[in-house]
Amino acid sequence: MRCSLAIYLSLLAFSCANQIIYRTPLLTEGREETLVSCSYEKYPSSNSVCNIRPEDFKPCTASNFFGYKKGSPCIFIELENVLGWKPRYFSSMKSLPKGMPQALKDQIDDLTANVKMWETIWVACEGLTPADKEFIGSTVAIPQPGFPGYFFPYIGQKGYLNPIIAVQLERPQVGVIINIVCKAWAPGIVHNANKPLGMAMVELLFD
């Protein structure tokens, strides 16, 4: 029997604790000793963890008030770790599922000119209903629309932090509640809004 692994995708609420962790990641116990710079060409060893630099999320930074003062708010998404889980990846445009948003497919088509980029758990955020899709306007994922494969697997490394991305809403409608759904896309990831699995949902009211 073949089983699909359902992976949680959770919104990272920027509480004071989370701000401290991701703005000053070296405060995480054991991180300074195990920290390395990672890339699609340079995966970490089994006892190392990848660097997450706050400056890579510009303009979604604390110094920019996470875009809220300029009317372009940012939300942060993290993929919760599952001990020992090794993701599978799509490997061609033909392998992408029909339900994936076309805008994300277009981005993937551009990004995977570097074939290593296929080793990504892709993420897209959009409005839940037709009205929400209109209200949300255009969005941009920073630094890229997905979680790089070099963050996986998590095997209990000291100092490990879940990978995150920022999603900036460039000009959302003011004064209305916008229902936003963000989904992770990779083979084996199940989307279930009732639990929720493979997705995160958030309501945004921007005055």
From TrEMBL:
- Annotated localization: Membrane
A GO biological-process term: intracellular potassium ion homeostasis
List the GO cellular component terms: sodium:potassium-exchanging ATPase complex
Going by the entry's taxonomy, the superkingdom of the source organism is recorded as: Eukaryota
* Pfam short name (any one): Na_K-ATPase
For this UniProt record, the keywords arranged alphabetically read as follows:
Membrane, Signal, Signal-anchor, Transmembrane, Transmembrane helix
Q: What is its main location?
A: membrane
A molecular function (GO) held by this record is: ATPase activator activity
* Membrane protein topology class: Single-pass type II membrane protein
**According to the UniProt entry, where is the signal peptide?**
1-17
Q: Which family does it belong to?
A: Belongs to the X(+)/potassium ATPases subunit beta family.
Its name, as the record gives it, is Uncharacterized protein
What organism is the protein native to?
A: Nezara viridula
